[in-house]
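Repro case for the chain-ordering regression, as requested:
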Amino acid sequence: MDGGSRRRSGTPRFRAGVPLPLLLPALGGLVFLVLPLVALLVRAPWRSLPDQLTSVAVWQALRLSLITATAATAVALVLGVPLAWLLARARFPGRRLVRALVTLPLVLPPVVGGVALLLALGRNGIVGRWLDSAFGITLPFTTMGVVIAEAFVAMPFLVISVEGTLRAADPRYEEAATTLGASRFTAFRRVTLPMVAPGVAAGAVLAWARALGEFGATITFAGNFPGRTQTMPLSVYLALQSDPAAAIALSLVLLAVSIAVLAGLRDRWMAAS
Amino acid sequence: MTTRSVSGSRLRARPRVRWAYRAVGGFALAAMALTACSSGDSDDSSQKSDSGSSSKKPSGTVTVFAAASLKESFTALGKTFEKEHPGTKVSFNFGGSDALAASITSGAPADVFAAASPKTMKTVTDAKAAKGTPATFVRNQLEIATLPGNPKKIATLKDLTRSGLKVALCAKEVPCGSAAQKALDASKLKLTPVSYEQDVKGALTKVQLKEVDASVVYKTDVKAAGGKVAGVEFPESKQAINDYPIALLKNAPNAEAATAFIDLVKSAQGQKVLGEAGFLKP
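-- result from build under test --
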């Protein structure tokens, strides 16, 4: 990902004559990615859509999805930005290994993540057992559990994006700030953070979108209970078992919300600077 | 994104490009190897089934789509079948009945479908994807799965409604969930679980990991889990027994061997294996 590299102003224009060997596969790729979404629109039960969408269960699931995805993004920001800074700026032995571990949830099957979370934070998990006996806190099957599962899967997106931006940002500004008397933390807060803000925002949007779509870790770690842990992806999956039309309707809602947020924020944040 | 990087980074990009080439090459090789394998496989089976049809003896590969709860017993029966009919191979696809039915109606190449409920079989027969009428070959009864040694002293279905007890049920949309709901309704019990799991194995796993105190699953699942869970029978489960239908599929690539496999499942020998796994006779 070169996302964090310094950018020229404006977007590159099409050069005259795109070579055919590039154009054809590019169009093929576009069709491949867009076709399934088109199919969703074509097969949507438009007539019964109003009924499907006004049901309480749908709004409950959507509301829960939006709340938990936002909370998971907040968790990812609070923990992930410092982690990204550590990976980009600090020198310590085993940094490559740490970076590999941080990005692991990106490639790990989400269900495996869910199982791992259960073994760590479950009622019988290595940390969860202690949480339960000392504080009476059990995380699985709670809304907090959903947030944790989503944050686990989504945070690497933020860390990678912010780390890339930090690497591309010139550390000399921070050094200048410290030579002028600012503390390391003040320099981070007043110089580094504003400089990499677009990267942080882009990472947060990615993480939010990933959290919104999270399924495997959520159903494994937090279970599935309407109103408490049943997010949109879970209700889509279960609806598919008995009522495919409802599943398509729910998918449309999720698709619309995702597109709206990605499109709305992309222009404002991602193309900035 | 790369298009916007400054030209200076192009120098660095070189080795990365070479690495990418190598990766792509690796993928291509792997893909070629895979397709070579699979095409070899299918050639093999079609040839064998051709020779089989001339001699009227089952041969080649039989592809069986079966409910996840049949995994242990069908795997054993598959081995028996291969031994009885040298030159045959039974390949299984175990999963949720609904998901399997969906892949069959969308054209997955399968010979036999064994479902955990008549409802899921109906989606296949409605799509005219089955040959003949499906036959019920076993039935499955529910049981309460609880922690080994039953520390919470669960003896009846009503005990599950005790406060402070964490229970996982299957979602009402899947066969084990609708059966559990039927049993609860029959005994006029209201049970709020901590989770509605997406399939029976999910409900069982939550007990195995000790995240819940109990779940309602099939008798066969409790048996298959060995000593990791304890089973508690409850009389209300008689109100919600699931029939398992099996059918030969219309577009079966190897109909002869498939019929022979279905015969084995329905035979006394097959029923014995299934009975040992905890299934009931139809």
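Ordering looks correct now. The interface with chain B takes residues 1-3, 5-8, 11-12, 118-119, 122-124, 140-141, 219-220, 222-226, 229-230, 234, 237-242 of chain A (CB under 8 Å).
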